[in-house]
Every structure is written in structure tokens, then in C-alpha cells.
Design goal:
This protein is an alpha/beta fold. Helices cover about 15% and strands about 30% of the residues. GO terms for molecular function: oxidoreductase activity, acting on NAD(P)H.
Length: about 200
């Protein structure tokens, strides 16, 4: 029997402020919707996409930063059947992705225990080549009739070995089906607003 988890009212978060500045500050814990989960993070990672794209170009003051995390589920919405409270969670796995990641060798077992499918040593001078090979293998082993390979990083040309497999890049911010408003571009000339009616395939 699992003990009840007390949900705090506030958490620490990296929040975009005016002038494309990020602060580490107290922030209200998000309310869990009917289709959402709340996770207490145990590990987070810095993602270049977060800094380069969202802070420098499309950062909207008040936005919380962070795409790469793992932790324990502490609350689920009424329509959520999996994961359950207490499960270890890697965000991408909950969306149905196969996870290819990097780590130091001493953390391979830990990262695998959280659900990573393939773990590369980020100190390996061949890690870039291995990542490209993993994209190619993902396309090659896809079922007959093809489908979609959804990637956080841009598809590499070497992986485009089947005409019946579409390779598409996504930003994880759009993966849950919620509207995402990135605010104006820094030069004020364009605005990106993304709305999705469901989760990514």
C-alpha cells in the first residue's frame, strides 16, 4: 500500500522574465487536469533547445522552462489509467516514444531503470555517429507499410532509407495536446502559436 503524498503549494522553477532573463524562483505547483499527471522530479537536464529557442527568440515572460526530466508520479487526473501514482516516469516514455539518450557510464543503470531504451556514453568521441545510426535503425525496423518516426532532434540524412517512413521533428512542448503560445519573435515581426487536437503519434 502506497503512502499518501502531500502536494506542496509551491515549487522551484526556471521562469522566463522580461528581457529574456531566466530566474530560479518559487512558482505555484501546476493544477492537474483530467488528462494530466504531476511528477516530482528526481533528475533534470539542460536542453540547448530550451535556451536557444525559447529564451533567446520566443520566450514569453512567465513561462516555465524544462523538457528533460524524470521522477515519480505523485498525482494523476481522473482520465489517466497509466502511469499510476508511484511509477518512475520519463516524460517521453509516457508519450509512447522509444528513448535514446546519453549519460556517463556510471549512470547507465540508473538511466535504464527509468526506462531509457538505448544509452550512449556522452564522453565517447563516436557518440554523434552512434546517434545517427540509431535514427537509421529506428526507420529500418519500423513495421511493414511504414509510418512516422517522431524525433526531438532534427532527422539526419543518413537515416532516410525508406520512402514509406516520414521523419518529423517535434518540440516536446506541443506533445500533450495543449495550446502553446511562444509569444512574439525577438524582432517582433512574427508570432508562432501552435495548437494540437491530440497527442503526437
Amino acid at each position: 500500500m502506497m503512502s499518501t503524498v502531500t502536494i506542496p503549494k509551491a515549487m522551484k522553477a526556471m521562469v522566463i522574465q522580461e528581457g529574456h532573463v531566466v530566474t530560479w524562483t518559487d512558482h505555484p505547483v501546476p493544477t492537474v487536469g483530467d488528462n494530466d499527471i504531476l511528477v516530482k522530479t528526481v533528475a533534470v537536464a539542460q536542453n540547448p533547445q530550451t535556451g536557444n529557442v525559447l529564451v533567446d527568440f520566443r520566450g514569453k515572460p512567465g513561462s516555465i522552462l524544462g523538457l528533460d526530466w524524470s521522477g515519480r508520479v505523485v498525482q494523476v487526473g481522473k482520465n489517466v489509467s497509466t502511469p499510476k501514482v508511484g511509477d518512475a516516469s520519463l516524460f517521453a516514455i509516457q508519450l509512447g516514444y522509444k528513448v535514446v539518450t546519453t549519460s556517463s557510464p556510471r549512470n547507465f543503470d540508473f538511466v535504464t531503470s527509468l526506462g531509457a531504451d538505448i544509452v550512449f556514453d556522452y564522453n565517447d568521441p563516436n557518440v554523434g555517429r552512434k546517434y545517427k545510426e540509431s535514427q537509421k535503425i529506428s526507420v529500418q525496423v519500423m513495421r511493414s507499410g511504414g509510418g512516422r518516426a517522431v524525433l526531438v532532434l532534427a532527422p539526419v540524412q543518413e537515416a532516410k532509407v525508406r520512402d514509406d517512413v516520414e521523419m518529423m521533428q517535434t518540440m516536446v512542448y506541443t506533445a500533450l495536446g495543449h495550446a502553446v503560445d511562444f509569444g512574439p519573435m525577438r524582432n517582433g515581426q512574427s508570432r508562432l502559436k501552435i495548437e494540437r487536437n491530440g497527442r503526437l503519434p
